[in-house]
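hey all, quick one before standup. I had two proteins in the batch that finished overnight and I want to keep them in one place so we stop losing track of which output belongs to which input. First protein below, input sequence then structure tokens straight from the run.
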Amino acid sequence: MKGDIGVIGLAVMGQNLILNMNDHGYKVVAHNRTAEKVDEFLQGPAKGTNIVGAYSLQELVDKLESPRKIMLMVRAGDVVDSFIDKLVPLLDKGDIIIDGGNTNFPDTNRRVATLKEKGIHFIGSGVSGGEEGARFGPSIMPGGSPEAWPFVKPIFQAISAKTENNEPCCDWVGNDGAGHFVKMVHNGIEYGDMQLITEAYQFMKDGLGMTHDEMQSVFIEWNKTELNSYLVEITSDILGYKDTDGEPLVEKILDTAGQKGTGKWTGINALDMGIPLTLITESVFARCLSSLKDQRVEAEELFGKKESIVEGDKQVWIEALRQALLASKIISYAQGFMLMREASNENGWDLNYGNVALMWRGGCIIRSAFLSNIRDAYDIDPELSFLGSDSYFKGILENSMSAWRKVAAKSMEVGIPMPSMTSALTFLDGYTTARLPANLLQAQRDYFGAHTYERVDKPKGEFFHTNWTGKGGDVSSTTYNS
């Protein structure tokens, strides 16, 4: 009996996905560039299963039923291209290659087009949930060649996480790089969520002077509210974890955050598409700032920086902080969906935003209770341009506004950096302001560069230039994009 699917790459994610597929009755052929890794897997975690090994790409191909389905769980970039180049001569028309890594979506666009010319289908699929998700049910976001989806769908939907209604957290996203784009935005929201939680933690620790046990209790309680989510849950676990000396382990971890690029890609794409992804980009910059550890230590001493204690009823502040975190988290998702909407329009993907919310409902790192409310919002209005305009989320934002402003103002007053939480509030203030000062900005541009402007008393699309000094001339430069 031949295998149902082959998987290349036996790092932790690859191994766990294979074991997950085996649990659901699929025969998997496992391959790794290093033969010893195949032996270790077969004699270790895969021992006693129906998983079989392949020690060459030819053997892998020979052991699969047609159309062959081969999933790459390898490092994104040149490694993926290298495996594709080696596989193509061994495959037949109609066979399917799947990239399950964190690939930048333009690479997926290119691979879909290149392989289509050779008669081979390509799927670029985001996989979220970490090693535990891969083993017991991840969120899976496939896109690429639509002809390939019916052959992959049963496997992917079987191994994916399920909602409380047993709906699979996996569905077809769209053509070309749509799946990897949605995964990129997922990771950008993940950056934002994590940064927001760390800002709340610092406000409690440095501003309110709370102990780690007290903070753990707060996060446990918050997880019983609308903030119920995987990241809030694990934060409570982390704050309660003690080192061998009985002290909180988290305080012994160096405060320099790493990143693998997906948050940065999200910010770059937002800039390219003109979408104000302020919260997520601030979260990326916060990681960049954290890496300047030596400079920060010197600057603290140079400026004599000291945070002030936040005065007042601690429980009142904790509730205000909860509301500020919830409101900011809504803005993080809202901005992410704005970016997906623009990308869908530009690329003709026809994304189903309710389905995206469903795919994120379980298994993935940003899974949270209110994703069900996001799905409901887009079911009511599939063309919803701003998530905060939905009645449910509008109500939360309005009810949280006073507490949100109170926390943002206090953080600036006492010197606690909260870049993502404050930028989220500033975004909403800007988004809900009918007339912004960009009229003055356009006047400045026209003054020094003759870049022209539109007038409120003339039809949109008609451009004007003013000779502001009487010496600049009447010839305009090119018009601008708004």
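OK second protein, same deal, sequence then tokens:
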Amino acid sequence: MITGAIKSQVDQIWNAFWSGGISNPMEVIEQMTYLLFIKRLDELQTVKEKKAARTGKTIESPIFNPYQAHLRWSQFKLLGDASSLYTLIAEKVFPFIKTLGGEDGQSTYAAHMKDARFTIPTPALLAKVVDMLDAISMEDRDTKGDLYEYMLGKIASAGQNGQFRTPRHIIKLIVDMMAPRPGDTICDPACGTAGFLVAAAEYLDKHHRDEIYRDTESVNRFNHDTFHGFDFDSTMLRVGSMNMLLHGVENPAIENRDSLSEGHAAVEGQFSLILANPPFAGSLDYESCAKDLQQIVKTKKTELLFLALFLRLLKTGGRAAVIVPDGVLFGSSKAHKELRRMLVEEHKLEGIVSMPSGVFRPYAGVSTAILIFTKTNSGGTDNVWFYDMQADGYSLDDKRNLLAAEKHECNNLPDILARWQKRDGEAARERTEQSFQVPKAEIAGNDYDLSINRYKQVVYKQVEHDSPQKILAELKALEVEILQGMEELEGMLP
């Protein structure tokens, strides 16, 4: 976990940007991203040099040649003159980043960095930020990742078209429930800052480290072929790419792609696991949307189109865990009903976790759910597992203060994971409990309504009230007491 000291250092850097004339949170993130990227390149070069020295071989795929040593973080940070530092980074280091290519001639990072702009306005601010970043120890992989997540958490306003960050603890819950495997090809078609892909990488590193680092082929697969992300926001692509790099994934396939457009309709059946929180708001013109998605579900609503997209992108047998607004579960339009029918009848709908409306505050107050299904093209739904999440470990107001995580009434997430992992034994649970199973036939009989409120039984506690006679007697006694008090006060007056 990131320490209070490092948080304080990041806060100081943030304040330095603010007072230095950059107040847009995304611009601050971008500029810090570029500097962290430059610092990371120097670290990677140092690792290559140490390996070469240890093996007695030449440096494998060096990032910097001997004539570019002055472009390395460890060298230019020693410059005492702020103006010289500014000129070097703006005119030499930054252009150098844009020319970098991977082993295939073009890395994901370089592709997204081509459009990058260096906007730190003054030499004094740059020198100050370089010194501050250099003072933060980022040798530990987890520290780098946590530091970056903390920075991303400072983006306090929602984007347009329903885009906002998914809380990291919700992402971790979803990834833990899906338990990615080393053979998975993982995709987030609306990846933003790549939070789901980062969490999946962390899960694989923690639970399957020996397998993913078993040999060169396994390492290459992890770094190049496992993770795929799409987004059409160039800023998000740069931030997401850096987020993956700082979490140890060298070259994920993060692409500039409008997932719903006709131009990318040919991409299908490629992924074994989809993790996503697609945009909720907005609608598209029929003309701009992929025709094959319109064939699956005739609608303009982006949340329904994304569900159709997930079914198209998944391999047969592929799994998905995605966040949807509650309206998807009970909407009465023809498109809503048809999509739910397809999930239940033509594929295997496995689970629905209903989340309280405060989970996405302060960005939005919409109620949401986690939808979990497997693409089969041949049915397979027997029972659907429901869970009524009532607490996620944080207050459900705009402040989102951390609560006592070990108490179930404050944090349901450990219970959700435990019950999900043993869901085959949940059939005997009553509908009054937080989790239970509902047979497919009952769901079909309810017009494929997937709202938990349709199936959960509410127990009303009997409350006994005092009789009216007793209440009146108590009121009379209070009046007598009040009158006595008033008489005593009157007696004290001169």
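Flagging for whoever picks this up: Residues 25-55 form the longest helix (31 residues). DSSP finds 19 helices and nine strands in the chain.
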